[in-house]
Amino acid sequence: MVATPIGHLEDLGPRAARTLREVDVVAAEDTRVTRVLLRHAGSSARLISARAHNEAQAADEIVALLAQGRAVALVSDAGTPAISDPGARVVSAVRAAGYPVVPVPGPSALAALLSVAGLDEGAVLFEGFLPARQRARQERLAVLAGSMATAGAALVLYEAPHRIDELLADLIACFGPARRVIVGRELTKVHEEVAALALGDAPAWLDAQPHRRRGEFALAVARAPAAEIAAEPLQAAEIDPETRRLLSLLLAELPAARAARIAHAVSGVPREALYALALTLDKPR
Predict the structure, then answer these.
(1) Please, what are the averages of pLDDT over each run of 10 residues along the chain (285 residues)?
(2) According to the 3-state scheme, what is the secondary structure of 143-164?
(3) Which domain holds residue 202?
(4) Do the beta carbons of residue 164 and residue 217 sit within 8 Å?
(5) How far, in Å, are 5, 157, 158, 182 from residue 77 at the CA level?
(6) Cα angle at 196 between 195 and 198, to 5 degrees?
(7) Domain's final residue, options 224, 254, 271
(8) What is the Cβ-side half-sphere exposure of residue 215, based on CA atoms within 13 angstroms?
(9) Does any domain span residue 194?
């Protein structure tokens, strides 16, 4: 399992480069991308495809190659394979067949972002990519917000450029505009940017430069201030009937995020809990 650069080719470590030269076969997420990397490393290994859509088939092929005595390296397009990228099925199949799986660590967008985030020590929840569908994404965020409140944790997400605006809108709705976020765009690449700002300021930061909606994103949502972290997150069933009625009335006129914010201001019930409840009440007709 060979970690490859997330942008800058010089981040390919000596051990990773040697491994790519020594193996017989390299299983790659996109063989066109990896062919450039192999050329940089001086590798003449045979390339095969191991994408998300053919991973089960690729796992069988890799096990067959190992049975023939071949050495195989698995890589993703960028970063560490099997972390928000294909690879886990291959690992399971290879190990089940009785062959060793060896990590060759290196670049990771998760580690790169956290190293420059400046977050206080504490728990980190790594979610990777949230669901593409809005309702599912909002519901998952509500669950994560509860986990963050319990653990006093920060949250790390990945996002594609065509969904970054939708993600930021949902993050603001869930955590409020004042919560801090560290946005990493095109990490280690030529146009790398890292910005630490309030969630409510992130859309304007994107608007300030047209190119900022291009490239891949990694985001770290800071943990809530200590005063806001409860021993246990409030569950929807624990919200008193009067507050539930208020929220229902607001939902008749407002989106879930605004309804939860107003209900929080009136009742003092944590906004994350109200937002999670609102998502269950505000079903599309």
Answers:
(1) 96 97 97 96 97 94 98 96 94 97 96 94 93 92 85 93 96 92 96 96 95 93 72 63 86 84 82 81 55
(2) HHHHHHHHHCCEEEEEECHHHH
(3) 109-224
(4) yes
(5) 8, 18, 15, 24
(6) 120
(7) 224
(8) 21
(9) yes
Type of residue found at 25: V
Nearest to 181 by CA among 191, 167, 162, 160: 167
Asked whether residue 161 falls in the same domain as residue 211, the answer is: yes
- State the pLDDT at residue 43: 98
Grouping H, G, I as helix, E, B as strand and the rest as coil, residue 217 is strand
CA atoms of 67 and 1, how far apart (whole Å) = 18
C-beta of residue 120 within 8 angstroms of C-beta of residue 221: no
Q: Are 182 and 154 in contact (CB under 8 A)?
A: no
Half-sphere exposure of 115 (CA within 13 A, CB side): 8
For the chain, what is the domain count? 3
Domain end residue (candidates: 179, 204, 224): 224
Q: Is 282 within 8 Å of 139 (Cβ atoms)?
A: no
Do residues 220 and 113 share a domain?
Answer: yes
Q: Is 200 exposed, middle or buried (0-12, 13-18, 19+ CB in 10 A)?
A: middle
Q: 48, 27 in Cβ contact below 8 A? A: yes
Angle of helix 256-267 relative to helix 164-175, nearest 10 degrees, comes to: 20
Instruction: Evaluate whether residue 167 is within a structural domain.
Output: yes
pTM: 0.79
